Amino acid sequence: MPEYRTSGGLMAYGERGEGPEDPVVLLHAFPLNRKMWTPQVEALSETRRVIVPDYPGFGTSPRPPAQPDVRYYAEQVGELLDWLKLDRLVLGGLSMGGYVVFACLRLFPERISALLLANTRPDPDPEETREARRETARRVAEEGVEVLPKLQMERLLAPDTLKNKKDVVESVRAMILESCPDGVVGALGAMRDRPDSTDLLGKIDVPTLVAGGEEDALSTPEVMGEMARKIPNSRHHTFSGAGHLSNLEAPEKFNAALLDFLKEI
Predict the structure, then answer these.
(1) What is the pLDDT of residues 46-89, one digit of tens each?
(2) How far is CA 45 from CA 11, 50, 186, in A?
(3) What dihedral angle (degrees, nearest 10) is formed by the CA atoms of 171, 174, 178, 184?
(4) Residue 8 contacts by C-beta under 8 Å, 6 or more apart in sequence?
(5) Sequence ranges of the domains in the chain
(6) Backbone angles phi, psi at 119, to 5 degrees
(7) Are 26 and 97 in contact (CB under 8 A)?
(8) Helix 70-84 / helix 181-192 crossing angle, nearest 10 deg
(9) For 237-254, what is each residue's pLDDT tens digit?
């Protein structure tokens, strides 16, 4: 398993595939890790180099040294790209990964040739959500990550997935439990205090795929559609039967949309 020491510590990442086109870097959701992109890595790596990092405190990356903000995660991604000598790339993120993508757009827009924004949103948390994140952080600090599946599963997955796709449910549960408490608490604080990125949408000047689940209650189809309308060169896909983790809940549809997008950019 590759790993690279950024200024914030070791950052583990997976890498597969090769090809003449720009590599694809995919940033994972909270509170999962790079394994969530397995269906996409398998599909894309036939023609592209695909890189999937673990944020500090998730998967096999050590915990962050202090309370991070979303810029911190973007800086770690940027350092990894420097080490891999990637000057141009397709950058994608789902949920929290989208928040980090927005921070990357602020830090190094010149490196990004196309974007994937999946099951995410540009606006900051309302106070009710901020308070919920504080409470979740408190419980994780006191009870450990074992409390997270009870708090997160129904938010992350559509009812049909929870009932009929036990392999997806168990995979998500296992990824959650691989996170370290400090990493989870740090990410909750970073998401809670993230800046408003709505102003960036109209300035995005690269092809952008906006994708989400029809049953996503966190980043609803309406939110995703409005975001797509504000991005000049974008297309919007909504996948039926999928919730907040649309890439895992509807992988065939997600992969088809992503592959078509990459062929046309």
Answers:
(1) 999 999 999 999 999 988 878 899 999 999 999 999 999 999 99
(2) 21, 6, 31
(3) 80
(4) 56, 64, 65, 68, 72, 75, 76
(5) 3-264
(6) 45, 50
(7) yes
(8) 110
(9) 999 999 999 999 999 999
Token pair recorded at residue 102: 């927005």
The pLDDT tens digits for 146-203 are 999 999 999 999 999 999 999 999 999 999 999 999 999 999 999 999 999 999 999 9
**240 φ/ψ angles, rounded to the nearest 5 degrees:** -70, 150
Place of tokens 């994608």: 92
Query: What is the C-alpha to C-alpha distance for residues 23 and 87, in angstroms, rounded to an integer?
Result: 10
Closest by CA position to 93, among listed 259, 210, 234, 239: 210
Tokens 């036939």 belong to: 46
Secondary-structure percent of the chain, ordered helix, strand, coil, rounded to 5: 50, 15, 35
pTM above 0.90, yes or no: yes
Tokens of 208: 């952008």
Side chain identity at 255, as an amino acid letter?
Answer: N
- 94, 166 contact by CB (below 8 A): no
Q: Residues 55, 210, 119, 21: is their CA dihedral positive or negative?
A: negative
Strand partners, 210: 117, 236
Give CA–CA dist 13/138, Å, rounded. Answer: 29
Question: Beta partners for 94?
Answer: 118
Fold held by 3-264: Rossmann fold (3.40.50)
Cis peptide before 109 (omega within 30 of 0): no
Chain centroid to CA 3: how far? Answer: 19
Residues 6+ apart with CB under 8 A from 145: 31, 176, 177, 179, 180, 181, 184
- Residue found under tokens 């673990």: 54
Contact indicator for 244, 254 with CB cutoff of 8 Å: no
